Amino acid sequence: RLTQIHNRFLSLRCASLSGAFQLWEEYNDIFFKYLNENPEMPLLNICYEDMLAQPLSIIDEIL
User: Fold this and answer.
1) In the prediction, which pLDDT does 8 show?
2) Do 13 and 19 meet the contact criterion of CB atoms below 8 Å apart?
3) 57: domain range?
């Protein structure tokens, strides 16, 4: 359930760390299910740690 506060939509589930993490897991499950059902969809997978270690090579990959 989303709540509108100051013209922004927020999930009250994010009020706790465990609730926010569970919501993130659910979003990821939905995304990977969609990706598995649509394998032709172009996807650029960027690892956060790689972006920190080698930002220029990741930017080249994006461009």
Assistant:
1) 62
2) yes
3) 2-62
